Amino acid sequence: MPLSDTLKTLPLAEKTPDAPDVSKNADKEEFRKVFHQFVGTTLYGQMLKSMRQTQQKPAYFDGGRAEEIFQQQLDQQLVDRVTEASSRTVSDPMFKLITMRRS
Prior knowledge:
103 residues, mainly alpha, 3 helices, elongated
């Protein structure tokens, strides 16, 4: 008997009434992940941008436009890593407040 015929004869799984609704939990976790990323990127991105603006360009080792472009890429990588490492400590209380208001 071919595999396709075997699959046709198998009964389909039915949803039991006491099964937990995973879609709401999955949506909440996806929202939490996006929220943490947004808060971390916004907070740390602005902080790093402000820190870079306070630095003066060196007299002899200025890389010009190329340095500015690569500096922005480096800053984005730094923001991403700091966000992954510590955004939950900052954004968890905010996330709890937002989800309390949504419920």
